[in-house]
Amino acid sequence: MSQEPTESVGGCLDRLLAAHPQMVGRIYRQLLIYLHTRDIVTMGDITEEARALTGRPPGRTAETPNEPTAQRFDEEESEAMHTLTHAYACNHLSHGEIEEVVNFVLKREEAQNLADIASLPSVSFRVLGERLRRFCALPLGEMHLDASELFGVRVALARHFISDDLTFLGFAKKFLRVRDYEDLTRRTIGGDARMGRIGGKAGGMLLANRVVEDAGLDAGPDLPIAIPDSYYVRSDVIEQFLELNGLRSYHSQKYKSIDDIRNEYPLIRGVFRNSAFPVEIVQQLRALLERLEQTPLIVRSSSLLEDRFTSAFSGKYASIFVPNQGDLEMRLRALLGAIGEVYASTLAPDPILYRRKHNLIDYDEEMGILIQRVIGKKFGKYFLPAFAGVAFSRNEYRWSPRLRREDGFMRIVMGLGTRAVDRVGGDYARMVALGAPTVRPDSGTIDTMKHSQRTIDVINLEKDRFDSITLEQLFADGGNFPMIDKIVSIRRDGDLFTPPGTLVDASPDNMFVTFDKLLKDTPFADRMKRILQVLESSMGHPVDIEFVCDGERFYLVQCRAQHQSAESDQVVVPDNLAADHIVFTANRFVRTTMIRDIEYVVYVSSDAYCSLPTNEQRLALARLVGRVNHSLVDKRFILVGPGRWGSSDIRLGVRVTYADISNARMLIEVARDRDGYVPEVSFGTHFFQDLVEDDIAYLPLYPDDLGNLFNQAFFKDTPNALASILPSAEKHGDTVRVIHVPAVADGALLQVAMDGENEHAVAYLQK
To answer: What is the Cα–Cα distance from 156 to 116, expressed in whole angstroms?
Structure first.
């Protein structure tokens, strides 16, 4: 059988030149460079040949720096250069090499065109997206543009699509590639004629994933790393939303008093949840739900102010689970309502007060939305991952001398990660020091069982809602839960044992969530430590990440800068103090710092708190603490209260938010044996990050521990100054006590010395 004649190399080159007539000069120039670098012919040799071909005299080397090295080519000499380059290319290069060189020239041209378009401040999403797709449609090839040639393009794309934060742009130009943005455009929701950004949370996730991939940590048999299936509602959509519904007047909320903001926010949330969206946005979201079918979703904030190196906004904005069950229109209503609530959360008390404190209040809040598939699997009527959590490259609190700050720290829970990042009542996450993952903060089997997680957060598919269930409820219908042998330990004869195989043959009441097998028998902790170290090294700053695992893959869902408290190098705790000068001592979870010259102590006793007959009164007490916090804005004061400040379980502690504690110098949690609860150390929660970021020291007190002192008379028998700083609150003097230290201590102020190295802290009076 005869074969079709193959195209000659010359024919190939002529065809490509004819296809790109405006690029002929650049193609010949790149061919000449390629021939020169391959040592086929030097630039000087081919130049002399061109001169000879046109009858010109040979060139000469300039004898002084003020003479040109050669005369500029005229048109005839340029044509001769092209002819000679064509001949050398046809004689020495293959079809593939010719096509590679031409493709490289086209790539460079498209990169420049893309840079020109991306540099326009008001370019539309449609125009920029089309130019980006043209560039990415070119074959990858083996000849790559130098990174320096693309830095400008990468910066312009990051500024248009993600964030204009200069620190972020510096990292984005190094790690995010042009082709990463093409995928982003296919997942973006917003008007073609507009332009907006996807925000800090989405950008941090994409950046972290690329860093991990470049470091080679994403692959391997042990839980390959990925990011969730994600879609991005651009920040310009909220502007359309506000304009369409006449909601721009709500921008003034940020300038109101904190009490007005708190009182009006429930109304605002309802208004936003039920407001209309532009038709084109509704159509895009409907098409997205058709594509995703009935998989559970989470709608997350991704503000342009969020997850910056100077302001993390940890937990300040809403994240809402959408079970996404039922008919399409019902699912669409739920999704639109969730997006509306996330928009409304920009006007909540906590983010507004946070913005005030960080001098960001005058910025217009531009909110992007991140819509993600919830990672997990269906298990009976529930949907949940195997485990999830949060991890930090620096360990801010260390409960053993064996632990090092630079080894990092992790909070990990079974099921959805909400219990790892939020303060929940009556339950515990597993706290892991990544340098010594088997060293627990508690001691003995009884403490391990007492401090293990008993409630799992899930998506209840039957009830179409987020839910919290017990292990017994989860396993009511049996089944083989992913990685269960690595998650639970089994109680037998009063002790705990890790399952020997992958199947767990035990009743749920004998299962305890410990993650012992995951931490002892797999490389998970070491790999987590390496991921955090790579991210910190690449970004030049400690980081924290949120993660989730479905049993088959490990997903990065968030990465941001970890704010660190100003821990002192050394604090000497006085050892010769008079007994009547000591206010309290502590010997657990102590970090090294010194809090000096405290003028006020705001105290809520467990007796007063527990005696309140209704939850409404307990919530009112939390708001009163918030009013005291604002009244003492210019004073140095500490908060001392029962159980867990900020707990979601109002029985276990005062349910304050960031807005209620933002001005305190220190937060102290008191655990008494008779109260029936122990404060879980807040490491890694959003609440804890607020304390770290605002340099609010934290300390749990265990007054009933042997050797500890707690001056009951100082807290209960001294005069109450509440009415003097907040006259309208005088009637609440039995529940909230404000102690003006100089007035009750003969002019002395309170000092708190904390020595983390020796796990010892003392608060004492000193003039």
So the answer is: 9
Q: Is the pLDDT of residue 309 over 70?
A: no
Distance of alpha carbon 682 from alpha carbon 644, whole angstroms? 9
Q: Is residue 546 part of a domain?
A: no
- DSSP state at residue 735: T
> What SS3 class is residue 5?
coil
What secondary structure, in 3-state letters, does 394-445 show?
A: CCCCCCCCCCCHHHCEEEEEEECCHHHHCCCCCCCCEEEECCCCCCCCCCHH
* Amino acid symbol at 577: L
Task: Give alpha helix (H) positions in 177-257.
Answer: 178-186, 200-214, 236-245
DSSP string, 301-362: EEETTTT-SS---TTTS-EEEE---S-HHHHHHHHHHHHHHHHHGGGSHHHHHHHHHTT-TT
β-strands 297-303, 230-233 pairing: unpaired
Q: How far is CA 37 from the centre of its chain?
A: 45
pLDDT in tens, 747-764: 999 999 998 888 889 999
Q: Please, which residues bridge with residue 544 across strands?
A: 392, 560
Does residue 497 share a domain with residue 366?
A: no
The amino acid at residue 337 is G
> What is the phi/psi pair of residue 642, to 5°?
-80, 145
Calpha distance 287→187 (Å, rounded): 12
Residue 67 has pLDDT above 60, yes or no: no
CA distance 206 to 162: 10
**Strand 666-670 vs strand 697-701: parallel, antiparallel, or unpaired?**
parallel
Same domain, 407 and 335: no
Last residue of a domain, one of 324, 355, 374: 374
Q: What is the pLDDT of residues 132-173, one digit of tens each?
A: 998 888 887 767 777 777 888 899 899 999 988 888 888 889
Q: For residue 629, give the nearest of 653, 585, 595, 662 by alpha carbon.
A: 662
The verdict on 71 and 139 lying in the same domain is yes
Distance separating alpha carbons of residues 637 and 594, to the nearest angstrom: 14
* Amino acid symbol at 461: L
Q: Please give the Cα distance from 481 to 467 (Å, whole number).
A: 18
Around Cβ 591, how many Cβ atoms within 10 Å? 22
Closest CA relative to residue 417, chosen from 307, 547, 511, 230: 547
User: Is residue 400 in some structural domain?
Assistant: yes
Residue 97, SS3? helix
- Per the listing, tokens 């079974």 go with 414
Of 12, 16, 39, residue with least CA distance to 27? 16
Percentage of residues in the chain having pLDDT higher than 90: 45
Tokens standing for 725? 């700083």
Both tokens of 274, joined, read 């039920």
**Left if phi > 0, otherwise alpha if psi is -120 to 50, otherwise beta: which for 242?**
alpha
**Interatomic CA distance for residues 765 and 745, integer angstroms:** 7
Output the DSSP codes for 261-315.
HHHHHHHHHHHHHT----HHHHHHHHHHHHHHTT--EEEEEEETTTT-SS---TT
Residues 218 and 347 in one domain: yes
Residue partners of 197: CB distance under 8 A and separation at least 6: 160, 161, 162, 163, 164, 234, 235, 304, 366, 368
Q: What is the pTM of this model?
A: 0.84
CA angle 270, 272, 275 (to 5 degrees): 110
Residue 556 lies in a domain: no
**Chosen domain end from 324, 343, 374:** 374
Supply the Cα-derived Rg of the chain in whole angstroms. 32
- Contact between 190 and 339 (Cβ < 8 Å): no
Domain boundaries, position 237: 208-374
End-to-end CA distance of the chain: 106
